[in-house]
């Protein structure tokens, strides 16, 4: 079993414009007999899932997402060696089967830059590539970047891949980690908080793998 999630920590990197992450002690063990932490964070902090409501008016919220949508066999597409701001086209995906699993994960290797300025210059999935994956059966898109769309440090309202995936009532998982160690086919579990909102942090797990030592 392998954890594919970034730890939630105070001051961790967030998408430009999102709320900062701040964890503060509310109760302390020595003083109060129990430790309790106050959490200040956005619904899209760390490794998280986007519900359709994130970009689709009237779209499903996280509490309406069934767990079986986020657990199952996955196709992992390794596309290493990409330049900053590269677009991942159909040809970059390699030879795809006629029908892909419901969960497709794109490994760019960019997880190593999470928490740095270069994370903002991540590769992005091309719209035609996203459409092809959806046409072949993808329901959940996972990426190891801040977004499957380009990230603009100044803020943007243009999310074409989100429109393709979330607009089709699918789901997007962002900021995955450790994808480079996964085989092309693996069983994944993505477990979000059941928030009645537009997204939620997740614990993402790859099953049937040796633990990281």
TrEMBL record:
Origin superkingdom: Bacteria
Signal peptide: none
Pfam families noted in UniProt: Cyclase (PF04199)
MF term (GO), any: arylformamidase activity
Record GO biological process: L-tryptophan catabolic process to kynurenine
Protein name, as recorded: Cyclase family protein
Species assigned in the record: Agromyces tardus
């Amino acid at each position: 079993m392998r954890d594919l999630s970034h730890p939630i920590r105070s001051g961790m990197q967030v998408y430009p414009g999102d709320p900062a992450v701040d964890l503060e002690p509310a109760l302390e063990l020595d003083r109060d007999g129990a430790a309790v932490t106050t959490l200040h964070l956005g619904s899209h902090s760390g490794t998280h899932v986007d519900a359709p409501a994130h970009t689709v008016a009237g779209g499903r919220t996280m509490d309406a997402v069934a767990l079986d949508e986020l657990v199952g066999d996955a196709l992992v597409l390794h596309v290493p060696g990409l330049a900053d701001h590269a677009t991942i086209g159909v040809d970059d995906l390699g030879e795809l089967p006629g029908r892909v699993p419901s969960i497709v994960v794109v490994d760019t290797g960019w997880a190593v830059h999470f928490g740095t300025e270069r994370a903002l210059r991540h590769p992005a999935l091309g719209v035609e590539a996203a459409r092809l994956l959806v046409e072949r059966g993808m329901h959940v898109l996972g990426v190891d970047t801040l977004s499957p769309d380009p990230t603009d440090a100044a803020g943007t309202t243009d999310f074409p891949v989100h429109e393709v995936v979330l607009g089709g009532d699918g789901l997007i998982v962002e900021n995955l980690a450790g994808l480079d160690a996964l085989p092309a086919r693996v069983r994944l579990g993505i477990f979000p908080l059941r928030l009645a909102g537009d997204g939620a942090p997740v614990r993402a797990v790859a099953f049937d793998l040796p633990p990281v030592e």
